[in-house]
């Protein structure tokens, strides 16, 4: 059974004004509005199929009368996107009775809530809350459309002047790099330090001259007594290796970096 609009109340009678408000909200005539009074006697069930009613009006005596079961039944019989109106009367001194009604409708799955109040001369205010049943159903799915921005189009004029990459190079950039000249330090078997030595060979030779040792004695030290390599504590007074660190026979003697800096 399908109806254009439905008005329900727990009271014995329903005001004609309320039926007119429902008809106007549903854009139907009053004759198309079905009315159910004392709906509590139905055991919490409305005699309509799922999604068969276009709009529903619930007239309640107080906020407590709007039970969760009634809200669920209204949601069941309403079509997707259908309207629901809840009207209630409360003393003018009541603190926002529409807030409790809105909360119950939100918990029942309704959206787009709007509330309004009107006070009469007998210190009673009429509260009307309008809401809408969501157009989607429980368990439904829909794809999310991701907004994409198109990249700007760039037009290239074939006749436009293009920069020649070679013109960005200077004559200095085109010159072949000059390799450093190898000094006499790397020439010959003796490998003597050159005049402008910068590899450290001149300093090594100066150390050898200071010790009055030959290069062979530095690079391949030998000891006749066998104690020269143990250090100055084991060397005799005429040992050529006095002042040098301990060494192993046949291994090059390492000279400290500050050896030349010491004053004699």
From TrEMBL:
Residue ranges constituting the Anamorsin C-terminal domain according to the UniProt record: 211-255
GO biological process: iron-sulfur cluster assembly
Gene Ontology molecular function terms on file: 2 iron, 2 sulfur cluster binding; 4 iron, 4 sulfur cluster binding; electron transfer activity; metal ion binding
Pfam families cross-referenced by the UniProt entry: CIAPIN1, Methyltransf_11
Cofactor field: [2Fe-2S] cluster; [4Fe-4S] cluster
Key words, A-Z: 2Fe-2S, 4Fe-4S, Cytoplasm, Iron, Iron-sulfur, Metal-binding, Mitochondrion
Residue span of region Fe-S binding site B: 225-239
Subcellular location as annotated: Cytoplasm; Mitochondrion intermembrane space
GO CC terms of this entry: mitochondrial intermembrane space
Keyword hit for Metal-binding: yes
Function description: Component of the cytosolic iron-sulfur (Fe-S) protein assembly (CIA) machinery. Required for the maturation of extramitochondrial Fe-S proteins. Part of an electron transfer chain functioning in an early step of cytosolic Fe-S biogenesis, facilitating the de novo assembly of a [4Fe-4S] cluster on the cytosolic Fe-S scaffold complex. Electrons are transferred from NADPH via a FAD- and FMN-containing diflavin oxidoreductase.
Protein name as catalogued: Anamorsin homolog
Species in which this protein is naturally found: Urochloa decumbens
